[in-house]
Amino acid sequence: MQTGNDNIPLHEVPPGGGGNLVLVVSAPSGTGKTTICRELLKQEPQLSFSVSHTTRPPRRAEKDGRDYHFVSESEFRERIARDEFIEWVENFGHLYGTSRDTVNQCIQSGRDVLLDVEPRGAKTLKRIYPWGVFVFMLPPSFAVLAERLGRRGSEGEDMRKQRTDRAVEEIREATWYDYIVTNDSVSHTVTLLHSIYVAEKNRNVQSERRIAALLKVTGGITHYGTHNR
Predict the structure, then answer these.
(1) How far apart (Å, rounded) are the C-alpha atoms in residues 7 and 4?
(2) Nearest Cα residue to 145 out of 118, 184, 116, 96
(3) What local confidence, expressed as pLDDT, does residue 41 receive?
(4) Domain boundaries, position 124
(5) CA-based torsion, 171, 201, 102, 191: positive or negative
């Protein structure tokens, strides 16, 4: 198992130029996080999805540039050498990485960012963006998870067992996340995630960044308060 997260420099875009939010969602394979994230994006046009790069082949109905950027292993490793990933890991024999430029461009433009990242990558993002919001999504049960994994006709029994074993490891990581939700139904889970997003957008720490950005542009409350008296 390989990871490129230990050497990531902690000098990314500073917190919240305009109070924008980094929302990170993690879940074991088969939990349904992709569906939930897509539904959230439909409700929040201000939220941009960070499309990861991967060396694994696309599954049925997956589209390059929408679900993942599908690249060869040689291209992926060239990108590693150029320090293009803010985090990257090897998972089930394939490489996955988050583009540094994609995330930082969204933040610099004032947009919120949604990332679908497994726990090892999420820990790196937590170090770089400690002001981000981290959500872990649980399956209703392991029986339901196994049934969902069984629907993937492209994977054999051995891979499904590996994914189930990995799910146990990942669920043990859930305790450090800010929120834990159970995906027992799509509509309910989307509502929960949307509520988290809206609440976090209006937390005091987020508002402080928006206020600071506004005052930086206007020249400060002292100047305007004195001018208008």
Answers:
(1) 7
(2) 184
(3) 96
(4) 22-50+111-227
(5) positive
Q: Please name the helix (run of DSSP H) or strand (run of DSSP E) that holds residue 40, with its range, or none.
A: helix 33-43
> Which single residue is written with the structure tokens 């029986």?
143
Sign of CA dihedral 213, 45, 128, 65: negative
**Looking at the domain assignment, is residue 195 inside a domain?**
yes
* CA proximity to 129, closest of 5, 14, 2, 6: 14
- CATH, residue 35: 3.40.50.300
- Report phi then psi at 21, rounded to 5: -115, 140
Amino acid 146 reads A
d(CA 57, CA 208): 43
Residue 94 domain flag? no
Supply the pLDDT for residue 8. Answer: 42
Q: Write down the H helix ranges in the chain.
A: 33-43, 73-81, 100-108, 119-128, 142-150, 157-172, 186-201, 204-218, 221-227
At residue 110, the pLDDT reads 83
Residue 6: the pLDDT is 47
Tell whether 95 is covered by a domain.
Answer: no
**What is the per-residue pLDDT for 3?**
55
For the chain, the domain total comes to: 1
pLDDT under 50 in the chain at which residues?
1, 6-17, 226-227, 229
In a domain, 179, yes or no: yes
Torsional sign, CA 109, 110, 114, 120? positive
Bridge partners (DSSP) listed for residue 133: 23
Which of the 8 DSSP states describes residue 94?
E
